[in-house]
Known about the structure:
The protein is α/β, with parallel strands linked by helices.
Amino acid sequence: MNKQINEVRNLLVRGDNYTNDHDAKYNDLHDYMRAHDKAKGLQPHQRYGYTKLTTDHTDPENGNHKVWSNSGPSVKRNPTTGKHEFVKDNLIRNKNMSIKTTENDKNVNPRTGKSHPMNQYVVANLRRPNAGSQKKQDKTYKTHEAFMGKIKKFRHWGPGEEVKAGDKTPDSHDHKDGHGHMTVTRQTPTATGHVAKKIRYHYQDYDAITPKHDNRAADNETKGGTTKTPEGKKVGLAIVSSAVSSTPKHDLEHSTMFHDTRDLDQHGILHSGHPHAQEEAYHNGIRKD
């Protein structure tokens, strides 16, 4: 066993679709390997992986690095109508994403008692250039590089909340730490006309990085981002990548996991669930496909 451990010191143990039971076994193996390293005076093993498990945690002190797999935006354009619709499953998953990628009391590792925000892996709906495309520097290559070169922030917008009567909060606010809100007026049809309601949307920014390689753990970025939560807590990074070059056009348009490159604004912010998109989706309903 010791001989085998020495031979695989640089192995990345990655379980992409494992259960809690599998994760516990990986933790036991990881702990055993690090204990062996310590006893031998060796550089400790590092474990990398990505996850969608809410019970999972990133634990840099013990060399256990996890990246949250972003499931896609809560609203997407219908490829047929061009109008935004809600993605039911992603409404729940994005709530979990907000918890796991920020430092907070709901994201405490029971093994260590610490809360470390995960970085998250975000995939845009454009093809990654293959070797031939890179060599020719064709349209696919140029489109991809232009997008990756422009993106600076990933902005996640939460669900809208009705503004209560008498609320004196300004309609919009952008904090220097990378969080804020905007308020819109929603016209709801009634039997006699329309009722106007003010709806407030809050956002959290994540510093975006675009690794040249396809390493979903990419944990030379373990320092995290520069943005903070409204409570002044740490926020992870958004590791922005693209679909493999063989991804069919249908999947790029229909798959709920991809973020639309058209949602990148002139300031280099990629919006996920922008208030205008959510308001349009409010009237269009849940996505069917």
